[in-house]
Amino acid sequence: xxxxxxxxxxxxxxxxxxxxxxxxxxxxxxxxxxxxxxxxxxxxxxxxxxxxxxxxxxxxxxxxxxxxxxxxxxxxxxxxxxxxxxxxxxxxxxxxx
Length: 97
Ligand SMILES: [Zn+2]
Description:
The protein is 33% helix and 22% strand. The protein is α+β, with helices and mostly antiparallel strands. Zinc ion binds at residues 12, 14-15, 17, 63-64, 66-67.
């Protein structure tokens, strides 16, 4: 098990910081080097089925733990039910009826 812990040095795709990681355990994002966007992602930010050519040329880029944490926090904030409840209340002001 311990012989799997080979650490390598790479650059985080998100923040461009150089960091050490274990290739077998690091979070990676699959990028299309031609568009410089995650595989299947369009410039408009929507997702579409990647072409076989895009899949063939795609590369996996490592993402550092800080950026993974930030992505998780962002996702949690987006999913948080209290936020949706506040939005719902704001859209329906109390008119006292
Ligand atoms: Zn990073």
